[in-house]
Structure formats: structure tokens, C-alpha cells
Design brief:
Length: about 290
């Protein structure tokens, strides 16, 4: 395996090192139905919390949301204006809003309140955008960021009144703190290689699940490009997965093209489930997965 500091390539290599055994006897036609926060979705393949998609396609953010609604998928959204979020939710997509770790907690609380009033099914924070690559606090489009404490997370959880999710968890250390703060879910992610040599999210997943005990949903983000990738995450214990950059080139072709790829990936997932004897998402079995040693 080629040595590299590129976290995205390390993540891809890890996905490709995982092999799947087949289980045909007594297998049944599978269901990809996901139940999350009291709602039912057709697929565990969700959109990722992207931002600024107008650089990819006109009205890219709403196109992205429309695609999720068409596919019966959970939709995530990142940084953006209040008006943009309102337009996204108006598409009918069941949306989770991820908020940056703004230095001013009043802005965080304002965005939480707006997201809840707009109709988001959950809100959360993107904790891995607190620092820049030079050891200082990050600044995104002129907006100052700052690392948050566990106590501050508790305040955000209490203020939300809907499930609060932390994105950017890649260690048991942060997992324990999220549980202490009362978070309702975490996203295992290195934010598209925000740090070199990052542990692949799928490699970190088992240790993280040993902390959560499946008491909260655990989602996997970064590098997912197929139904097989999604299957490997789900088999190892993820509740659902997020797909972002893989879908972005399709935005210029409209919501139908993006929804079509989500549907294709869901069908790919169902195909692997059928051939491995997994009839439903809650019947996933990690012993199906093997790490290549040759």
C-alpha cells in the first residue's frame, strides 16, 4: 500500500482493504429502511453537510435538498444564510443543520433557534473547524471560530430542544465528552482531510462504538462513493452514512441526477445486503467484514 499523508487517500485505501464474505442460505430480500429520530426514510445513504454549492451549480443548495427529498433520504446542510436554510427546508427535505463553532456563542444560539423554528429535525456543530492549520483559531469568510468546551456543548444541547449532533468526532476521547454533554448523535469524520494522517473514520468507528454502546446514532462521513462503501460502514456499526463530494459533480444536471445516484447507491447497498444474508439495517453483522492481509 502506498504511503501518503493524504487523509482522503488513506481513507480510500482503508475502505478498499475491507473484504466481504457471502451468506446465501436462508437469506431474504432486504429492506434499506432507516428509522431516525422518530421518522422513517427509504435509505441510510444521506447527503453530507455541504455549503456554498452555488460555486458548483446555480441554486446548488436547493437542488441538493430536492434530491434528498426525492430519494427519501436525510438531508444535512452546513454553513449558509437564514434565507438559504428556509429555502432548503421548503423543498420538503427532512433537514439537519450543522452550525460552525462561532466564537460568539450568541450567534450559535441564534442559529440553533432559527433552524428549529424553520423546521429542521435536528441541529449540531462542526467542531473540527475550530482551529486553522497554524495553531490559531479558524476564521471562515471573515467569521471568527473558537474551540468549544464540554460545558458549552451542554448549553447548546439544552437550548436546541431537538436532537443535537456533533460532527467531526474521530476519537473515543471526544465521544466520551459528547455523551457527557448529552448529544443525541455524532458524525465520525475528518472533514475531507482537514488534518494530514487522519485516522480513517471507518477505522475509528469500532472504538467509538465501544464508548457509545449504541446509545446514540453514530454516522460515518468522508470518502463514501458506493453502496458497497455504505455497506461496510453499516456492517461495522454505523447508523447511516453521508455522501457529499461524490454527488457534487451531478448538481449541474439537476436534482433528478443527484437523486438518481442516491437511488443507485441504495440499490447497490441492497444488492450486497441480499448476498450477505442481511435482511434489514438492524441485522447488520460485523463478522461479515474481513481485513485484507495479502
Amino acid at each position: 500500500m502506498e504511503l501518503t499523508s493524504n487523509s482522503d487517500k488513506i481513507t480510500r485505501d482503508y475502505f478498499d482493504s475491507l473484504l466481504v464474505e457471502t451468506r446465501y442460505l436462508d437469506a431474504v430480500l432486504p429492506s434499506t429502511q432507516l428509522t431516525l429520530f422518530g421518522e422513517t426514510f427509504r435509505t441510510p445513504i444521506m447527503t453530507a453537510a455541504l455549503s456554498h454549492l452555488q460555486n458548483t451549480a446555480n441554486d446548488g443548495m436547493t437542488i441538493y435538498a430536492q434530491a434528498a427529498a426525492m430519494s427519501g433520504a436525510v438531508h444535512w446542510v452546513g454553513m449558509g444564510s437564514d434565507e438559504e436554510l428556509e429555502a432548503i427546508v421548503a423543498t420538503g427535505a427532512r433537514t439537519i443543520k450543522i452550525i460552525k463553532p462561532h466564537a460568539d456563542n450568541r450567534e450559535v444560539l441564534r442559529k440553533i433557534e432559527h433552524a428549529v423554528k424553520t423546521g429542521c429535525i435536528a441541529v449540531g456543530m462542526d467542531i473540527d473547524h475550530a482551529f486553522n492549520s497554524e495553531g490559531g483559531y479558524d476564521n471562515i469568510f471573515g467569521l471568527p471560530m473558537k474551540a468549544k468546551t464540554t460545558e458549552e456543548l451542554k448549553d447548546f444541547v439544552q437550548a436546541a430542544g431537538v436532537p443535537f449532533i456533533v460532527k467531526g468526532v474521530l476519537s473515543p476521547h471526544d465521544t466520551e465528552k459528547c455523551l457527557k454533554a448529552g448529544c443525541a448523535g455524532i458524525v465520525v469524520s475528518h472533514h475531507h482531510g482537514i488534518i494530514q494522517y487522519a485516522v480513517p473514520p471507518l477505522m475509528a468507528l469500532p472504538d467509538i462504538l465501544s464508548i457509545t454502546g449504541r446509545s446514540i446514532p453514530v454516522f460515518v462521513d468522508c470518502g463514501i462513493e458506493s453502496g458497497m462503501d455504505a455497506y461496510k460502514c453499516l456492517a461495522l456499526g454505523a447508523t447511516a452514512v453521508s455522501v457529499g463530494r461524490h454527488l457534487m459533480p451531478l448538481l449541474k444536471n439537476g436534482a433528478e441526477a443527484v437523486a438518481g445516484r442516491i437511488d443507485e447507491m441504495t440499490a447497490e447497498l441492497a444488492g450486497v445486503m441480499a448476498r450477505t444474508g442481511v435482511g434489514a439495517l438492524d441485522r447488520m453483522d460485523p463478522t461479515i467484514i474481513h481485513r485484507r492481509t495479502f
